[in-house]
Amino acid sequence: MAVLNVNGKSVQANADPRTPLLWVLRDTLGMTGTKYGCGIAQCGSCTVHIDGVAARSCQVPLSAVSSGKKVVTIEGLAQNGKLNKIQEAWLANDVPQCGYCQSGMIMAATALLAAKPNPTDADIDAAMTNICRCGTYQQVREAIHAAAKA
Amino acid sequence: MTIQTSLASTALGRRGFLVSGTAVAGGFSLGFTFPHAPAQAAEAKEINAWVVIKPDDTVVIRIARSEMGQGTLTGLAQLVAEELECDWSKVTTEYPTPGENIRRNRVWKNFSTGGSRGIRESQQYVREGGAIAREMLVAAAAAEWKVPAAECSAANSVVKHSSGKTMTYGQLAAAAARLEPPKEVKLKDPKDWKVAGQPLKRLDTLPKLTGEMIYGIDVRLPNMLTAAVKASPVIGGKLKSFDAARVEKMPGVKTVVAVDGNAVAVIADTYWNAKLALDKLPVEWDFGKLAEVQQDDITAMLKDGLGASEAFVGNKAGDAKAAIDGAAKKVEATYSFPWQHHVTMEPMNATVLYTPDKCEVWCGTQNGEAALAAAAEAAGLPVAKCEVYKQMLGTGFGRRGRADYVRQAVLIAKQMPGVPVKMVWSREEDMTHGQYHPTTMCKLTGGLDKDGNLVGLHVRISGQSILAALLPQNLQNGMDPVQFQGFAASGPEAAYGYNVPNLLVDHAMRNPHVTPGFWRGVNTNQNAVYMECFMDELAEAAGQDPLAFRMKMLKPKYAAVLKAACDKAGYGKPLPAGHFHGIAQIMGYGSYVAGVSEVSVSPDGVLKVHKITAATDCGHVVNPAQIERQVAGSFVYGLSAAFYGEITIKDGAVEQTNFDSYNVMRIDEMPKVETVLVPSGGFWGGVGEPTIAVAAPSVLNAIYKATGKRVRELPLMHQELKKGA
Q1: Is cis: bond before B679, omega within 30 of 0?
Q2: Is the pLDDT of residue B456 over 50?
Q3: Contact state of A32 with B12 under an 8 Å Cβ cutoff
């Protein structure tokens, strides 16, 4: 039984320590906002924050986060019902189409803005390597710039 | 049956419960009910099949088509709301289930969501649904006030009498629901629209920002198990045997089952445990002769068709061969287009609860009724004892119009009666068991007279037919009419735009063993590459500008759209040094579209698509903001294919397995897309697909201008664009 800190809460997860965090979140803890897209850290749908840094949870074993590291998922971004800046910008810019990749997009963008409050287009290109098959990239870029100005 | 709530820890968690509650009985899938609570059967009043109104004035609009990102949920709701005269801020939506549709004599008509048909083929009856409900609400108010209905008017969810009296829709709903619906209603002229035609935001965004939207893969049922599945890696191969004893004692594993004679599944407590065991499971397959099929065999098969004497004729005018033979100048080129994979962001999955007298399925599907039929067949139960609860789709692109994955999930769950089983395909399983965009080759021969006019054109397509594999009953004397999308002689769907006096478009059908499928845009994709790139070759041979050359031959609506795109892009005006424009146009899915791509190619061969200007005439515009997003997304989809998309076959199996071997466009490669809407009215065209077709040819035509290289084979990643190479 591993103990994790997820979205500021201590939770227990009964899973093999080698299990990818993605599947611990989805299947063991029932937090399905973090998505499976490829399982090989290519698509970014499973992006979460580990101690504030964006990480692809399909490649992070449970054992790597069960020692007090702070895991934040898409479900933990809004505080007391208030969306964060990126989520607000996503809402204002009507970014998602199907939305499946957007949890990962929003996690990556939130981490980007935390590291670089005023990202350039080149910063966005470098940080936002998530795949969106609907092709929301133009709205993603606009929303990140809007959030930076907000 | 209820679905467990997620552990969403935000204060928005209550909404998560609503979204998770998509399993509610009564024939409705309470999917996208934000920002309002779902309709409660006791208090919500169904005015008619399309409109339910609650006492608090919430309007629930029923949507039969599936939402997969294309915005149909919002657009269809706008059309109903426009006629209903309701307050848009109070609108929410829900899906009727396919089973309920059958029980109610298909009152919601077609559930199938493909071919960019959602709005254009249901606009008439959903608008009528809204108008009928409005008339019933007005009649209810008139009866209450004992005044003629003609003295009452409806607006913003309120009925008002000329005396000034008012009642809200919520107050009137119960009485209205008891009235006979009017037999005839008059629909608004689109020029009077207030809700439809506006760039309204989507209705389903908020839960997609908080992790609370439930996709098929997110469904959770009490005591649910998860299945990981592996089908024969060689398409068409059979399962021979497997050694379950080797994995049955692994953590979480419940059982190992054979599926449909061609696959094996491990059922475990979690996906990861199921996958680990499946990876370790020894399996023997019977591939037969299919294991000898190589990509070169398929290329040879297609090449053979280019010169074959027998071919289906899709469009014919005059005598193309004689005109070409007698032409002053002859131009010839051969193009090819490889298999593409849909790569839906969410891999195939379905959750099934089977008992000997009931089979329920939770899944994302573009065709709820096909999913229901597949479930019934696989379960061996009558359709009336089966149900499908549609979930949000993590994209579909045509892939989820098929029900192969539903059949597989039911066959797995059937082996554990009473236990809900969620089947999830790994990305690798998904990539290697797709329904691939068909592969074709095309030889084009054109004849120009001494003045550079195109007097004869022969387009010979060789390759795979989708209908022959999936819907053979729709073939016409063996011919696949869908093969000629964009080349059709006439019709409202995908007619050829050029006036060419002598024309022959024919198809030598060559069907490899790889399953083809409807891939967003379908056959417009390669047909536009063939025609529009060859048009540039003809223009060059004629010594004319590609735009001017096209304009001489294009029919009015096609010409207007191409001109609109070129005007906006500044075609013919100076560009930054090293930048070049390429153009393309097509009619597809009832709409006229054109694109102008601005590209540069560096001396060492690095291609950059800087900007694309795209024009669309879809007749009527229901939501310009969502059309812009569909157009921009179409270029991501079309250029992903043009840059990287290629499925190849080795030893009968698909070689690509994941995004590392099947790359797609990311944000750094996305050009700026500017959308120009030029609706000419009088018809309804689709927007989810047509623009994809102009992505590749407009870029290829610009690459020629930049490099002098005609790229006739895709994907571009195999092409050397370096100077002098």
Answers
A1: no
A2: yes
A3: no
**Percent of chain B scored above 90 by pLDDT?**
94
Q: In sequence order, what E strands does chain A have?
A: 2-6, 9-13, 47-50, 53-56, 70-72
| Per-residue pLDDT tens digits for B571-585 | 999 999 999 999 999
User: Do A79 and B10 make contact, defined as CB atoms within 8 angstroms?
Assistant: yes
- Which among B85, B120, B130, B90 is positioned nearest to B622, based on CA atoms? B120
Structure tokens at B118: 């959602």
Looking at the structure, tell me whether residues B41 and B155 fall in a common domain.
yes
Question: For the domain that residue B452 is a member of, what is the CATH number?
Answer: 3.30.365.10
User: Judged by CB atoms within 8 Å, which residues 607-636 of B form the interface with A?
Assistant: 625, 629, 632-636
Tell me the three state secondary structure of residue A128. Answer: coil
SS3 at position B392: strand
**How do beta strands B91-96 and B59-62 pair?**
parallel
Separation between Cα atoms, residue B632 and residue B621, nearest integer Å: 16
Record: contact B210-A75, CB cut-off 8 A: yes
pLDDT of B663 strictly over 50: yes
Would an 8 Å CB–CB cutoff place B212 in contact with chain A? yes
Pairing of strands B503-509, B312-317: antiparallel
Local confidence band at B26 (pLDDT 50, 70, 90 cut-offs)? low
Q: Does the complex come out with an ipTM higher than 0.95?
A: yes
Residue B316 near chain A (CB below 8 Å): no
Each residue of B304-358: pLDDT tens digit? 999 999 999 999 999 999 999 999 999 999 999 999 999 999 999 999 999 999 9
CATH numbers and ranges of domains, chain A: 2-76 (3.10.20.30), 85-149 (1.10.150.120)
Residue B649 CA neighbour count, 13 Å, CB half = 25
Partners of residue B590 on adjacent β-strands: none
Closest CA to A70 of A4, A124, A19: A4
Final residue of a domain: which of B191, B210, B229? B210
Residues B467 and B529 occupy one common structural domain: yes
**Interface contact B7-A130, CB threshold 8 A:** no
Predicted local distance difference test score (pLDDT) of residue B42: 59
Domain of B462, in residue numbers: 295-340+436-718
Q: Determine the residue of chain A that is closest to B203 in CA distance.
A: A94
For residues B46 and B73, membership in a common domain is answered with yes
The reply to whether A102 touches chain B by the CB within 8 Å rule is yes
CA–CA separation, B8 and B6 (whole Å): 5
Q: Record the tokens describing residue B292, joined without a space.
A: 């000898």
Q: What is the mean pLDDT of residues A138-144?
A: 98
Last residue of a domain, one of B165, B181, B210: B210
Give the total number of structural domains in chain B. Answer: 3
User: Looking at the domain assignment, is residue B7 inside a domain?
Assistant: no
In a domain, B526, yes or no: yes
- The pLDDT tens digits of the residues spanning B556-568 come to 999 999 999 999 9
- Would B431 be classed as within a structural domain? no
Which residues lie below 8 Å from residue A27, measured CB to CB, with a gap of 6+?
A: B226, B269, B270, B271, B272
Cα gap B147→B12, rounded to integer Å: 46
Return the higher-pLDDT residue of A66 and B213: B213
Facing A31 at nearest CB: one of B7, B69, B213:
B7
Residue in B closest to A39 by C-alpha: B427
